[in-house]
Amino acid sequence: MGHRPSTPHGDLAHALSPAVPVRRDRRSVRSAHDVFLDTGAVPPGLDPLVAASWRRSRSCGVDPDTPRTTSGLSPDELDAYRAAHPLHDLMPVVRDLVVDAARDDGLVVAVSDDAGRLLWVEGDLRTRGAAERVGFVAGAVWREENVGTNAPGTALATRRPVQVLGAEHFSRPVQQLNCAAAPIQDPDGRVLGVLDVTGGRAAGSHVALSLVRATVASLERELAARAAGARDAAGDTHPALRLLGTPAWWSPDGERRLSGRHAEILALLGAHPRGLTAEELAVLLHPGELSEVTVRAEISRLRRSAGSVVTGSRPYRLAAQVRSDVDAVRDLLAAGDVAGAVRAYTAPLLPRSFAPGVERMRDELAAEMRSAVLADGDPDVLDGWTRTDDGAEDVEAWQQLVARSDQGGPRWARARAHLAVVDAGLR
Questions:
Q1: Would you call 307 exposed, middle or buried from its count of C-beta atoms within 10 A (0-12, 13-18, 19+)?
Q2: From 104, 171, 339, 359, which residue has the greatest number of CB atoms within 10 Å?
Q3: pTM of structure
Q4: Are residues 221 and 253 in the same domain?
Q5: Residue 163 CB partners (closer than 8 Å, separation 6+)
Q6: What are the residue boundaries of the GAF domain, all occurrences included (predicted)?
């Protein structure tokens, strides 16, 4: 299957009811929660994001009275995992920007990994005590599948900033708390984890969500600066065309974003060096619903924005000098440099595309990557692969990483932690 936009967005659109004003007061939401648990129906007026999350929580079988937050890691394993995590070096920034202020406001600040495991939980001691009583502690997993609707878990599920107020939490024991959270992404758009602020009234204010957003923006700028510095130090150069993750076109004037349709056209032309006619492109993009005239109009607009990247017309071809990050990955695989290919494979190919031709390309590239990684078996390669969007769901790769890593080491602890989350989700 291809990578499609995550289902939370579809749920959100389904839940949206613009004719009814959203009510977030405790009494209304608690009443809606009771009705939902009894009947499965969402009463009008509930925040659409919360309604969608409640549906996901219910479908995952979350017990609203007994959330599952078990750690599965020893203290030493958690320490090793945190030390190896890419957000570890940013914790001084988090403490400077938000933790110190949070203590004064009676708040707790948490940073999780991309699987919802809380890595750091710091802040006001009294609020930490209240949070600990519901399992909100370092090492615990707060995915929606485990706990139901909650800011860190729902931010991961939707890949967007969220604020969950009291009774909006799916699990009743958590309804005493308010929380606001946002995902933290690296420069390639990969989610590394979540920043969360939890507490009483202060955590339910607009200021709390604004603080979380601003802090995450600062962290992502820092990640981008460090990545740029590393590339400069290595003398790295970007391919002209980025198709992995968020598409972009690089020119001497700088980087420009590409529309989804333009990126699809360029990806397909790159995979067919002999060229494609407008009719062939229409079939690969949207069979039966896209005309040749529309394709020609799109290519005309593409040429105006990106210059002579597309040559000819009968058929259309990608200019010979244009290389993409997909080309770079395939070249590394062909050369037997699996570690280099994993580093270059920063995200799936155009993950939001539904075009049949692109979906096939995406699936083929992911399968080639997976096959090469599992055949290679090097712990560094396996570790890198499991940090990608495709590898994160590859149970066999995680199992190999446990088997091939030094027991008790950071990689071993990380892999064991992830498999514990998977195992808990299957129970």
A1: exposed
A2: 171
A3: 0.60
A4: no
A5: 151, 178, 179, 180, 181, 204, 208, 209
A6: 120-218
- Find how far residue 106's CA is from the centre of its chain: 29
| 99-142 residue pLDDT tens | 988 888 999 999 999 889 999 999 999 999 999 999 999 999 99
pLDDT tens-digit map of 191-200: 899 999 999 9
Partners of 318 in the β-ladder: 310
Residue type, 69: T
Q: Three-state SS across 206-255? A: HHHHHHHHHHHHHHHHHHHHHHHHHHHHHCCCCCCEECECCCEEEECCEE
Nearest residue to 150 (alpha-carbon basis) of 177, 130, 132: 177
Nearest of 134, 81, 102, 56 to residue 387 by alpha carbon: 81
Region of 171 please: left (phi>0), alpha (psi -120 to 50) or beta.
beta
Task: Give strand pairing partners of 120.
Answer: 111
DSSP 356-378: HHHHHHHHHHHHHHHHHHHHH--
Q: What angle do CA 225, 191, 113 make, to 5 degrees?
A: 105
What proportion of the chain, given as a percentage, has pLDDT over 90?
A: 52
Q: Which structural domain, as residue segments, surrounds residue 46? A: 7-59
Q: Do 34 and 121 sit in the same domain of this protein?
A: no
Amino acid making up residue 236: D
Work out the pLDDT band at 72, boundaries 50, 70, 90: confident
Do 170 and 284 lie in one domain? The reply is: no
Same structural domain, 246 and 317: yes
* Helix%, strand%, coil% for the chain, nearest 5: 55, 10, 35
Co-location of 282 and 299 in the same domain: yes
User: What pLDDT does 11 receive?
Assistant: 43
| Runs of H (alpha helix) within 255-394 | 260-271, 278-285, 292-306, 325-334, 338-344, 356-376, 379-386
Q: How far apart (Å, rounded) are the C-alpha atoms in residues 342 and 365?
A: 12
Contacts of 246 (CB under 8 A, 6+ apart): 188, 189, 257, 347
CA geometry: angle 360, 366, 371, nearest 5 deg: 125
**What does the CA dihedral 247, 249, 253, 255 come to, rounded to 10 degrees?**
20
One domain, residues 366 and 255? yes
